[in-house]
Amino acid sequence: MPTKELRLTNWSRFPFKYLPMDFNPDNLVELKMRGSTIEKLWKGNKSLGSLKFLDLSGSEWLMETPNFFKAQNLEMIDLEGCKSLTKVHHPLEVSNGLNS
């Protein structure tokens, strides 16, 4: 499935450690992956210029947030219940409109 045109992904309880290698979030505005078994969204940097909302709440195995590379439109991040987080990339450096 081509992911380049995706605007919204609601993939609760995602059963794998990583998103597919060919996942392209370039045009993604909202990513919801509540209660997933994901450990890291992807390897390397992906352009997140369109991303506004990121919800990974309840993803207990998540160890690292994505690098918020060019995420200047990011408004909301929900990491509640992500008990395994050891590395959180600081989004405030790239977004002036971020809400907690």
Residue share in β-strands: 5-15%
Rounded to the nearest angstrom, the radius of gyration is 12 Å
Outline: globular
| Mean model confidence by pLDDT | 85
* Strand order in the sheet with the most strands: 1-2-3-4
Estimated structural class: mainly beta
Order of helices and strands: EEEE
**How many domains, as an integer?**
1
Helix % is under 10%
* Secondary structure tally: strands: 4
Low-confidence stretches: none
Largest sheet: 4 strands, parallel
Structural notes for this entry:
The protein is 0% helix and 12% strand. By secondary structure, the protein is mainly β. It has one domain (1-100). It has a 4-stranded parallel β-sheet, with no helix packed on it. The chain is globular. The chain starts with 7 loop residues before the first strand and ends in a 22-residue tail after the last strand. The model has no long low-confidence stretch (mean pLDDT 85).
Considering the chains and any ligands shown, give keywords for the structure.
100 residues; mainly beta
Q: What is this structure's SSE topology?
A:
Blueprint: E1 8-10, E2 30-32, E3 53-55, E4 76-78
Summarize the structure.
The protein is mainly beta and 100 residues long.
